[in-house]
Write a structure and sequence with these properties.
about 270 residues; Thrombin, subunit H
């Protein structure tokens, strides 16, 4: 009788050990699968990432980096942040808007672009390639698919051309979907831009737990499983509004939802 109870206890213990081992293995497999998804998706993403700036052959460096962009639409359109673009270019000195398409070397290929659309209130802009072959375009996600907690990644040039024209990828989650205009506890914390946003132009942005840098402005935020773009990194427009009352800006990153890029594309097609 005692031997039978002992065997039963041993069997129960073995089952619990096996169940625990299976649960651990399944939990461990989730990040592995997520990493595997990103590894498979990145070769589709990186050929569509470009550096945005101005080009003037007689200066050094000839290309001045201003931010990141990515190819959309028919392969001749580049999406980026509106603040990435200069107010004017010195055409009399042969300065032009340009992008650099990364290549196998550290320099990449310079291609001329023109500004075709801009939405200052959402800090988005579209550029058009001037002639030449189309580039591979990224797919844009539908407008209503993003949820808090979902995994994201973004690819761009976090510190510009300092280390060469090599796109860099960061990953994280959507930690919150939050209004760009946040009511302040004290009227002294308000500024004219925030007052306008609160009165007329409140819209929601994605708060990310991954760290982006100023050169990442204009980078595509995408689903690491599918490669579909869900937003556009913004490191100036959003942070200046949401964090204007902070003496030390946070390490939080923000992105403009892709639905606003859909609308801008609709205006130029």
């Amino acid at each position: 009788m005692n031997e039978g109870l002992s065997n039963t206890r041993r069997s129960g213990m073995r089952r619990r050990v096996l169940q625990s081992a299976c649960a651990f293995a399944m939990a461990a497999a989730v990040p592995v699968l997520a990493r595997a998804d990103l590894v498979g998706v990145l070769p589709q993403i990186k050929p569509s990432i470009v550096a945005v700036g101005t080009y003037q052959r007689t200066r050094s460096p000839a290309f001045q980096f201003r931010g990141t962009g990515f190819v959309v639409g028919d392969g001749h359109l580049i999406a980026t942040n509106a603040h990435v673009l200069p107010e004017t270019v010195a055409g009399e000195n042969m300065e032009t808007l340009a992008i650099v398409v990364p290549g196998k070397d550290q320099q990449g290929t310079v291609r001329q672009v023109s500004r075709v659309a801009s939405e200052r209130s959402r800090d988005l802009a579209l550029l058009r390639l001037e002639g030449g072959a189309a580039l591979p375009a990224l797919s844009l996600a539908s407008r209503e698919r993003v949820q808090e907690g979902q995994e994201i990644a973004f690819t761009g040039f976090p510190i510009g051309a300092v280390l060469g024209m090599t796109p860099v990828t960061h990953r994280g989650i959507v930690s919150a979907i939050t209004p760009i205009g946040i009511p302040q506890a004290n009227s002294r914390d308000l500024n004219p831009a925030l007052i306008r946003r609160l009165a007329n132009d409140v819209f929601r942005v994605y708060q990310l737990d991954a760290t982006a840098y100023p050169g990442n402005s204009g980078s595509p935020v995408f689903d690491p499983k599918t490669g579909e773009v869900i937003g556009v990194i913004n490191m100036v427009f959003v942070k200046s509004t949401k964090e204007s009352a902070l003496s030390d800006p946070s390490g939080i990153s923000y992105a403009i939802p892709v639905e606003y890029l859909h609308k801008l594309l609709g205006e130029v097609r």
